[in-house]
Structures are given as structure tokens and as C-alpha cells.
Amino acid sequence: MGRRLREIRHAQGTSLRVVAGLAGISPAYLSQLEAGTRALDRHCVIVALADALGTSPPELTRLPVPAPGNGDTDSAIEAVRQALLAVGYQRPGGQVVPGEALRDRIAGTVDAHYRCDRPGEVGAALSGLIRDLHSSIAAGRDTAELLNLAVLLHTQVTVGWLRVLGAPVDLRLQAVVLAHQAAQELDTSTALGLAAWGGLHVMITAGMFDLALADLDAVTVPTDTPESTQLAGMLAMCRSLLAAVDSRPEDVAAPFEHAAELAERTGEGNAYGMGFGPTTVGLWRMYSCLDVGDYAQAVRIGDGLHPEVHLPPLVQADYWITYGRALARVRSRRDDAVVALHRAEEISPSHLYRDLFATDVITELIARSREDSVGRELRGMVHRAGLLR
């Protein structure tokens, strides 16, 4: 991201001092970002720099071409793009399939996604599943059940899988829109809540903070069942994270405390595949701490979590990436940061290679590394990720 910052600034003929002033950061900090000796690791800084350069946050956060860890990934993303566009044009081009068969296929795809898609099941199955599901909805059979399946598929798999693989934000937004359309047609608090939760990270990445907040404000989920309580807890955490990235620190604590209370009530759960519980509350607290620059607190939270006990592999990889990013900011624990990032790589290589926050941290660490075993491991990671150009 630092390289792209410098390219855009040079193309505009704008000085480093002017851009830094407009973004509210120091010229020295911006110089470090552009040189890759400091990771660009906060959404609020990305949005400020995009505004200063007259561009959009997705322009700064898009993957390079060719992307790291490519393999067959981009062809699978392109197949999903074609399927989403076909649905948007109301010509999905799939087969009309009974609801029970679609439910089984979606359950298998959700499972493959959270197992980190090692054999490529999600990429191979998702485009056809999207086409068949929306063709079946268009046929008008079992509409309510199929709309619920559409909300589940797009919030649990389509948006999440595209995020893990670093797909463009505009493509992820198309999946968010399909989830919202299905939820609005159903008009239930559960469907609307799931759609708001599923779209949050995409809207944050796009810098669409006002729209994300309006989406959260539009739904109220009761806490009268264990399932709805878990969804309400996830939405409370969405509010906290959004406040953190939107530079509203005064609005961060209260929703998190509410989510923590609900998590104590429910314990470790997995309603709607969200995995809500005390461990997930801790992980989302780490996200927020990173975005407000409280790296030491993020490390303290991470030190106390045990992701392998309660989280599926995909979310374990998220934990290790987040923990590694926090450790990289603590001078005495940079070697631990390399170990954490390597753990993420072991679980889900593509997740690490295509997470731009992670790769920016790796770039910073390699610039500061020594010729020792940790430095060699870091260089191996850089080579496997295809980050050397």
C-alpha cells in the first residue's frame, strides 16, 4: 500500500508534506509508509490518505497484479464475478433445484469455507451455487426458504471468501447487495441483522462508514432466544468496530460491554455460523484496538485467547494475523510477530498472502529483520507469498 501511495502522490505532483498535512499525519510517518518501513495498518489513516489524495480507500487497498499467492485463485474469483453479474441482470443462468438440495450444498460450502478451502472446494462450487440458488428463487418455489438461504450464502460464504482472497471491494459489494435485497424482501430482524453483519467489513474497507451505521441503525434484534442473542451480540460488536475505525472512541466501549455481557450469557456458540462467544468478543476487541492504535492492549488481549479451542480454522487464521500485526508494533516482540504470522500461513496460506494489512506488516518486518533463524523464516514467508518483485 505504501508503494501505491507514493505512485499516486508522484503522479499528482503533490509533495509529501502537503499530503501528510491534509491527512493529519507527520511527513516522517508518511515517508515511512511509502518506504515500507512502517505498515499502513489503520482504516482511519487509509481513509484520511485517500481523501488527501482525492482517491478512494479501495484504490489504496487493492491487490497488485499479479496478486500474491495467485495459483488458480483469480480464475475462481472471475467465475464468481460472472455469476454475481448475471444475477444482477436477473439472468442467473442456473438450474432450478429443490430447496433441500440447495440447503445441503450451501451447508457443505459453508463448512469448506471455514475449513479454509484447502482443496479449493469453495472456488469450484460457489459460482454454480449462486446461479442455481437465484434461478430457483426466480422460479418462485419455496421463496421464503430460498431467500433465507441467499442471505446465509452471501453473508457466510460469498462475502467472506472474496474477502479472504483479496477480491476487489466493488465485487464484494455486489454480494452484499444481493444479501440485503434478500433480507429486505424477507423483512425479518434475523435476515436484516445477518445482512448488516455480513456487509460491515466490506463497507469499512470501502470507507462507507455512514452507510454501515445506517444499516446497523435500521435493525433491532431481540434477545429472547439463544440464537437471536448471539446475533444481537455480533451487531453490538459491529457498532464498536465501526466507531473505532470512524475515529469515534467515545462510542467504542459501551457496545463492547453489552456484547461481552451477552457472550457470558450464551457461552461459546455458533448460531447462524457466526461463532459468537467470549473468544470472538476478544478477537473483535483486538480489531478495534489496532484501529485506534492501542497495540499493547491488543497484544494483552491476544495473549489471553485460545483460538484453537473455540474457533474454526478460518477464524483462527484471522486471530493469528491480527495478533501478529499487534506484536509487530511492540519492539520486544517482533520475533513473536513472525511466529504468529507463520501460524496463520500454516492454517490458510491464501488468507495471509492476500491480506494487505498482513503483507504490509511482513514488508515492515523484513526491512527490520536480522540474519538469524527468525529472519530466515520471514524471508521464506516473503518468497512463498510472492511478495518479492
Structural overview:
The model has no long low-confidence stretch (mean pLDDT 91). This protein has helices at residues 2-12, 16-23, 27-35, 43-53, 57-61, 73-88, 99-114, 121-138, 143-164, 169-186, 189-206, 209-217, 226-245, 253-266, 278-291, 295-303, 307-310, 313-328, 334-347, 349-353, 356-368, 373-385. Helix 6 (73-88) packs across helix 10 (169-186), helix 7 runs parallel beside helix 9 (143-164) and helix 13 runs parallel beside helix 15. The two termini are 14 Å apart. It has four domains: 2-61, lambda repressor-like DNA-binding domains (434 Repressor (Amino-terminal Domain)), CATH 1.10.260.40; 69-186, no CATH class; 207-293, no CATH class; 311-389. The chain is mainly α. It contains 22 helices and no strands. 52% of the residues are buried.
